[in-house]
Amino acid sequence: MTAKNVSKWYGSFRVLTNVNLSVRKGERVVICGPSGSGKSTLIRCFNRLEAHQEGEITVNGVRLHNKMRNVTEVRKSVGMVFQNFNLFPHMTVLMNCMAGPMWIKGVPEAEARKTAMKFLERVRIPEQANKYPVQLSGGQQQRVAIARSLCMEPAVMLFDEPTSALDPEMVSEVLETMTSLAQDGMTMVCVTHEMGFARSVADRVIFMDAGQIVEEGAPNDFFANPQHPRTKLFLSQVL
Ligand code: ADP
Ligand code: MG
Fold it and tell me: Which segments of 27-77 are extended strands (E)?
C-alpha cells in the first residue's frame, strides 16, 4: 500500500499536503497527531471512502483514481474499523459478520456462517452471535466490528481511533484483540493515541500535523528522541 505525493482538498481547504507513505506486507504502522491533522482523511483515502486529487495511491497493486470502475474490489481487500463501530443495528452480530461475504463476495450462506463463527471466536465473543449490537458493551461491539472486517479476509486492516469512543475499562480488550492480530502477521495501519500500543506493536510510528507527515520512526527512537518541536509538544500532551 503506497501513497506518493498525495494531496487532497475539501473545497479550498487543503487537508493533505504531499503525503508519502508506504506500508509493506505484514507491517504495523501507527499514525498519531493532533485532532484535525488529517489522519482519518488519509486512511479513508486508502480504501477510497475519500478521493484524493493529486498524487498516486496504490493498494494491492491497484491504483486508485477517479475513473476507476470497481471501488468494491479495493474495499474487499482493505478492512476498516471505525471509532463508532458502525455495525448494522438491525442485524444480529452473526448477520453483521455474514453480510459482507454473502452480499459482496457471493459466499454461500453456510460457509459465511462458518467463517463468521470462526472470527467471532477469534475475538472471543462467539456467545454473542445472536444478539443485536445495542445489547453489547462498546468493547464487545468493537470486537464484532473487527471480526466483521476479518470475515472479508482483507489484506490490510485500517483502524481509525478504535478505542477512543470506549469507556476506559473496555480499551484493553480491544487493544488485546488488535495486538493478537498483529502477532498473526496482519498488515495494519492504526490511527490511535494509545502510545503503549504503539510502543509494543508498531514497527513504525508516524506523526501528522496540519495535513503533513512531520516525522516518523521506529517506536523506540520516536518516543525517546522526537526531533520536531510539534512532535515533542504532542507527545508531552498524550504521554
Ligand atoms: P483527524 O482524523 O486527524 O482528526 P480529519 O482527517 O478528520 O482529521 O480532518 C482533517 C481536517 O479536514 C479537519 O480540519 C476537518 O475539519 C476537515 N474535514 C474532515 N472531513 C471533512 C469534510 N467531509 N468536509 C470538509 N472538511 C472536512
Ligand atoms: Mg480522525
Answer: 28-32, 54-59, 62-64
User: What is the ipTM metric for this complex?
Assistant: 0.98
* Cell numbers at 82, concatenated: 471505525
* Residue entry with cell 503525503: 19
C-alpha cell at position 163: 478505542
| Residues in Cβ contact with 204 at an 8 Å cutoff, skipping those fewer than 6 apart | 27, 28, 29, 30, 216, 217, 218, 219
Q: Answer yes or no: are the C-beta atoms of 97 and 174 closer than 8 Å.
A: no
- What is the DSSP secondary structure assignment for residue 130, as one 8-state letter? T
DSSP H or E run through 232: helix 229-238
Interval 199-228 mean pLDDT: 97
Q: How far apart are CA 204 and CA 197, in angstroms?
A: 12
Q: Is the pTM of this model over 0.95?
A: yes
15 lines ligand 1 (CB under 6 A): yes
Which of 14, 30, 40, 41 has most ligand 1 atoms within 8 Å of CB, for mutation?
41
